[in-house]
């Protein structure tokens, strides 16, 4: 957890707070030139503008903007936005992440209803709700997740709900509360291979995250579970295979694999750009290992095409049964 110290002089112009204060002492990492298969068009469509207006009017935060997602133009054009609850400031400081870090503000008690109103106004068939890590809260924000899920169920009962949660590390009983709120999909990303956790995800624990997803299946076998990793951080192919096996052992239904993209020179460097052919290979292997659903492309992100993928996921389960 990072605490920001106010060093401003009374009467002097207020300096903008750094987005990543904990990374300022990091040496600048080299930035690799993006290959053609990573490039995306700038968001300029009317649908994009309408989605942005709905998000702004409800005072909501989206991970699409905060994490600088490359797919924002395509998704917002279709009115698909991933809501990020509990503020825009995270208590963790992952080396890959573009989310602001520091001491978060108090929870917005009106947020659950505002999220539900936005879902209703957009007419979403499927919504993805994620959050920052809130290690400052006794339950890690579990009750807030519950309230958001209940509010959406009340406002938009036909909308299926996918959540992308923190790991609730050292928050006894928190995960159980969220599981019992019965989202349709419970997603928590492993992000990378175990060897790279200390450098890339130092505030988290690989096997705790894996156990969280296993617990979902034990408590509610009908809930779909989902997890994802980034590649291009220096992992080996064998390590990716091992993560797939670990996920399957935990009963995870859906795996996402996407290319890591470096937000700034102060973030972890891209080791290499994985080719589309390699992603195709990962997809084939993951399907052979028994995942019901696989999304493995350079631009894959946790909520990319989440609505269409949920329909495929449900169909795959029915076909298997």
TrEMBL record:
Q: Where is this region: Disordered?
A: 1-30
Q: Which organism is it from?
A: Aquisalinus flavus
Keyword Phosphoprotein in the entry? The reply is no
Protein name per its UniProtKB record: Lipoyl synthase
Q: Which NCBIfam families match?
A: lipA (TIGR00510), PRK05481.1 (NF004019), PRK12928.1 (NF009544)
Query: Could you tell me which residue ranges the Radical SAM core domain spans?
Result: 76-292
Q: How is the cofactor bound?
A: Binds 2 [4Fe-4S] clusters per subunit. One cluster is coordinated with 3 cysteines and an exchangeable S-adenosyl-L-methionine.
Q: Which PROSITE patterns does the annotation name?
A: RADICAL_SAM
Q: Which superkingdom, per the lineage?
A: Bacteria
- Name of one Pfam family that matches: Radical_SAM
- Pathway(s): Protein modification; protein lipoylation via endogenous pathway; protein N(6)-(lipoyl)lysine from octanoyl-[acyl-carrier-protein]: step 2/2
> What top-level class of enzyme does the UniProt entry assign?
transferase
For this chain, the family text in UniProt reads:
Belongs to the radical SAM superfamily. Lipoyl synthase family.
User: Might you give the EC number(s) for this enzyme?
Assistant: 2.8.1.8
* HAMAP family per the UniProt record, alphabetical: Lipoyl_synth
Where in the cell is the protein located? Answer: Cytoplasm
- Reactions catalysed, as given in the entry: [[Fe-S] cluster scaffold protein carrying a second [4Fe-4S](2+) cluster] + N(6)-octanoyl-L-lysyl-[protein] + 2 oxidized [2Fe-2S]-[ferredoxin] + 2 S-adenosyl-L-methionine + 4 H(+) = [[Fe-S] cluster scaffold protein] + N(6)-[(R)-dihydrolipoyl]-L-lysyl-[protein] + 4 Fe(3+) + 2 hydrogen sulfide + 2 5'-deoxyadenosine + 2 L-methionine + 2 reduced [2Fe-2S]-[ferredoxin]
């Amino acid at each position: 957890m990072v605490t920001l110290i106010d060093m401003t002089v009374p009467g002097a112009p207020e300096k903008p707070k750094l987005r990543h204060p904990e990374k300022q002492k990091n040496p600048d990492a080299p930035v690799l030139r993006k290959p053609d298969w990573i490039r995306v068009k700038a968001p300029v469509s009317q649908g994009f503008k309408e989605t942005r207006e709905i998000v702004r009017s409800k005072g909501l935060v989206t991970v699409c903007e905060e994490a600088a997602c490359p797919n924002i133009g395509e998704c917002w054009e279709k009115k698909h936005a991933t809501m990020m609850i509990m503020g825009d400031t995270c208590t963790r400081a992952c080396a890959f992440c573009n989310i602001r870090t520091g001491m978060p503000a108090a929870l917005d008690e009106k947020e659950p209803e505002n999220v539900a109103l936005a879902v209703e106004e957009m007419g979403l068939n499927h919504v993805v709700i994620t959050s920052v890590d809130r290690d400052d809260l006794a339950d890690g924000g579990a009750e807030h997740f519950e309230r958001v899920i209940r509010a959406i169920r009340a406002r938009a009962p036909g909308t299926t709900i996918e959540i992308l949660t923190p790991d609730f590390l050292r928050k006894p009983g928190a995960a159980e509360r969220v599981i019992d709120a019965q989202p349709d999909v419970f997603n928590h990303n492993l992000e990378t291979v175990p060897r790279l956790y200390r450098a890339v995800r130092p505030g988290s624990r690989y096997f705790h995250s894996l156990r969280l997803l296993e617990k979902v299946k034990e408590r509610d076998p009908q809930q779909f579970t989902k997890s994802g990793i980034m590649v291009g951080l220096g992992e080996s192919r064998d390590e990716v295979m091992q993560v797939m096996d670990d996920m399957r052992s935990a009963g995870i239904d859906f795996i996402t694999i996407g290319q890591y993209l470096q937000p700034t020179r102060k973030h972890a460097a891209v080791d290499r750009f994985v080719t589309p052919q390699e992603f195709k290979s990962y997809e084939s292997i993951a399907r052979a290992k028994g995942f019901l659903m696989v999304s493995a492309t350079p631009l894959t992100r946790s909520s990319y095409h989440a609505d269409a993928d949920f329909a495929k996921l449900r169909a795959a389960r029915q076909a298997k049964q």
